[in-house]
Design a protein that fits this description.
The protein is of the alpha/beta class and 382 residues long. It has 11 helices and 15 strands. It folds into 2 domains: 214 residues, Rossmann fold, CATH 3.40.50.2300; 129 residues, Response regulator (Rossmann fold, 3-Layer(aba) Sandwich). 40% of the residues lie in helices and 19% in strands.
Amino acid sequence: MKKLTKVLSITAAAAMAASMMASVSVFADDVFTIGAIGPITGAAAAYGTSVMNGAQIAVEEINAAGGINGYQVELLTADDTHDAELAVNAYNDLKDQGMQLLLGTVTSAPCIAVEGEAANDNMFLLTPSGTAVDCIFGDNAFRVCFSDPAQGTASAQYIGEHGLATKIAIIYDSSDPYSAGITEYFTAEAANQGLEIVSSEAFSDNRTDFSAQLNKAKEGGAELVFLPIYYQEAALILQQAASMDFAPAFFGCDGMDGILGVENFDTSLAEGLMMLTPFTPNAEDEMTQNFVKTYEEKFDGLVPIQFGADAYDGIYAMKAALEDAGATADMSASEICDAMKASMGNITITGLTGEISWDPATGEPNKEPKAVVIQNGEYQPM
């Protein structure tokens, strides 16, 4: 069950609203229409904005090169503010506008809600960054990023295999499927790696005071604090750890990406912060450097983060699968979805986040995990 692609442009910051207002569905048979849903405003806006920007770059490149199977691509975008109910409303709005295929949603809880609708509609869904297992529970759905189990397991393996620490504390968000899922699998793999979990402290309602969790970690002698959380809370944790003279190593996952852009955050506090992420803008390969250059020029000097790279790869994965399927723009979303289900298992792309193929039975990507460390205010490959 897959959907097709028309792609509408979206810009960052002030231009974002104007771009979205200019987005008008054409209901035409001569373009593929791709929808994209994510948080363009609100606390997780760094993720959604990056996804829309990365998708826009890919769509413009594809259209300039002749499109997909001879058809141009239109991108329709919608803001869900990281809210599940708003994400479902956005999905229905985009469907009414002629969406044939969905890139999204960006974060896990909204993606789970939207996938319920997309599975019922036999709409192809490719989430660039929704990591919870249930984000892709239907056979219509695939993902570009690693799942929560994969991120949790890979993080523990990376820490253990590279000897980064032996005593580990975890601070996680028990109300968030992303955070709770990674924590579960990290904890299980930590035992296999000989890592001692000295404290595992959750938060949910209180997102501003982490002194209790940090004190438990400090009292337990944690050498490294694992933070499978989003960048907003992570920035506060780093600030509060510094204020109490607690200086362990810190290690996060892809939700940490964006911390250097937090308003009024002293980025020196993130020095040495490590994270599992498949993309760094400082990589020296030609594809990455071309993408970073285009991104900075198009979006007022913004430096792309992993979410933009995931979206860019996602659009090119759609292109490859549509070409493999021989899809045409006059096909219905359900027809496209059925064709894409088989074709996703046939393709391999070399993207910004690595060489990727997909398991058609699970929708999961096959690619190598990577890690970066923040040095001198920049992400550097580890």
